[in-house]
Amino acid sequence: MSREKIRPFLIAKQDDGDVRLTVRETRYNSQGYPLVTSIPVEESFKTAAAARAYAKQHFGAEPGQFASK
Question: Domain holding 24: CATH number?
Fold first, then answer.
């Protein structure tokens, strides 16, 4: 069981060059096992900076809450 905290925003570059943002929510079951729900944002972005700005504006994201893939 991993105790590493999952960052709530994932920024991933697609094969076509666009960037996608995924919002992740972590909950824990009764045994303390993390359950992660991932919800991709429908919009695609030209740059990672644009995806970060969108997350800050719409979800209140802060620096350090982003992971990249």
Answer: 3.10.450
In the numeric block, the tokens 């999952």 are attached to: 6
User: CA 49, 57, 8, 16 torsion: positive or negative?
Assistant: negative
Q: pTM, whole model, 2 decimals?
A: 0.84
Is there a domain that residue 56 lies in?
A: yes
Domain of 52?
9-68
What is the chain's pLDDT, residue by residue, as a tens digit (69 residues)? 456 678 999 999 999 999 999 999 999 999 988 899 999 999 999 999 999 999 999 999 999 999 998
Q: Which long-range contacts (CB under 8 A, 24 or more apart) does 39-47 make?
A: 44/14, 44/18, 44/19, 44/20, 45/18, 45/19, 45/20, 45/21, 46/18, 46/19, 47/19
